[in-house]
Amino acid sequence: MANSKYEYVKVDYEVNDEVMFPNLIVVRIHFCNFTTFSQVHEFEQPNDEKALNLMNACAIAVLKEYPDIVFSYGFGDEYSFVFSKETNFYQRRASKILSLIVSFFTSNFVTNWKYCFPQKELKSLPLFQSRIICCATIEVLQAYLAWRQRECHTRNQHNTCLWNLVKSGKTELEAQEILKGTLKQDKNELLFQQFKINYKLINKMFRQGSCVLKTENEATVKYINDTPVKRLRKNVIVDHSENIASRKFWNEHSCLVKEIGSFTVEINNIKPEFVKSFTFENKLMPSTWIVVRIDGCHFHRFSEIHEFEKPNDEQALNLMNSCAVAVLKELNDIVFSYGVSDEYSFVLKEDSQLYQRRASYIVSAIVSLFSAVYVMQWIHFFPNKELKYTPCFDGRAVCYPSYKILQDYLAWRQVDCHVNNQYNTCFWELVKSGRTKREAQKYLKGTQTNEKYDLLAQQFHIDYNRLPIMFRRGSSVFREQDKDTAITNEGVGGETQSRVVIKHCNIIDCSFWEANPSILNNMSL
Ligand code: GTP
Ligand code: MG
């Protein structure tokens, strides 16, 4: 299809974020605002076994879905996924990888909730964030795993003491004061003396975390003349090992050694410069418009399996819009969003400080929220269709340095919507009229816009301009000032309220932006 004059917004501004060889790729996801979520859902403190089992179930799903992920380790509200050293997963593009994993994990969290908590309704949106950790060598990976497991030990011991003190009548503040400056040994003593708890006997999953990993074993697949034919089979197992960074644990799993490498030394001290690299995070350029574009992963297949109407399924598009509304309601810094087909673009205000402008946190939060709502609201939009498998979305963030370029970005997406929709409408009409897909493709090759209008009008009696506006223009979701409250509050210095609306405007045309200056707030026209 022809390139539009707006294509430069992709070519010139999207950056390469490939994780170069020989870095090992680790994706860590964590729950955002877990404290509030666990209070709302009345999780047991300091550890809720069911919640941990749910996290493990999601990790198992991730390992089963993505063959390139060989090992994972999780505790509390986080999970780290380690890719094989030779992986070329999505050309090793950081944003693509971290967003897909967080999206798939979140979708699974929502889907599996009812199995882990059959008596509890999922009352609020789970929101995970993710980031990539690059490990230059296997020793760095080993240090990373040791660091996370040490964190698990420290946090769990602290929390076990804290919650026992609280249960015994102390306030949280008092309990924290008691624990201030205490060492590991002191905490073990406190648990034993005051609460008769032998820390070492506490559930291994709480103390040591969980790893989900791939193992290989020989299995008999068939018999030929009574001789068994054996093949290597990969399994996914869950383990709660005491020291995942030890040579003993690691090297005894042939799959880990083969796909990632063996551990040759023991880690005693974790180098602070390694920890610094694990916590370092790139920030997006200040005073630029951040656009996060998310896109459904393999939605061609997803729409086939769920029998979406062709070329546009109104309910599927309504569901996408509803997800965008939820994202805007959750994240105030998003001032505008535009969606078409299986994609949505979210524009953050120019001076946004959301997550300190950390690209991975912004992208993953949006993708995670969107995925959670997609799964949760599916039933409302498709009451008679089962969600057959968990959908996922990838995302990327791009910075646009001026309002004009931002406008060109949005125009680019809307031109694309028009071009694709017109093509698809013709294509499916030709197919419905008896042509094969190949013939339809050949027929349309090289045709111009006007020719397609004519084709639709003459052969199929369709006036393109009368097709539903959502199909032709896509959907814009933004905050609109509530006229009633604007009037009520006028003159009294009160705050005007806004509500999130879905419209199908022409955003290529400057007049839309001129007529609605408040949408992009502090824009400079
Ligand atoms: P990746 O994004 O590269 O993973 O591939 P994809 O299969 O998602 O394709 P892409 O994002 O390029 O295009 C989206 C695809 O989703 C379309 O080609 C359609 O096949 C499908 N799709 C999106 N919306 C609809 C719809 O309303 N109806 C139908 N039938 N299909 C849709
Ligand atoms: Mg897609």
- Rounded mean pLDDT is 94
Major β-sheet profile: 6 strands, antiparallel
The percentage helix is: 40-55%
Output the number of helix runs. 20
Head-to-tail CA distance between termini: 32 Å
Q: What small molecules accompany the polymer chains?
A: guanosine-5'-triphosphate, magnesium ion
User: What is the strand tally?
Assistant: 12
Low-confidence stretches: none
Could you state the oligomeric state of the chains shown?
A: single chain
Q: Beta-sheet strand percentage?
A: 15-25%
Computed over alpha carbons, the radius of gyration is 27 Å
Specify the structural class: alpha+beta
How are the strands of the largest sheet arranged? 4-1-3-2-5-6
What is the general shape?
globular
Task: Give a quick precis of the structure.
46% of the residues lie in helices and 19% in strands. It is an alpha+beta fold.
Keywords, separated by commas or semicolons:
binds guanosine-5'-triphosphate; 525 residues; alpha+beta; binds magnesium ion; six-stranded antiparallel β-sheet
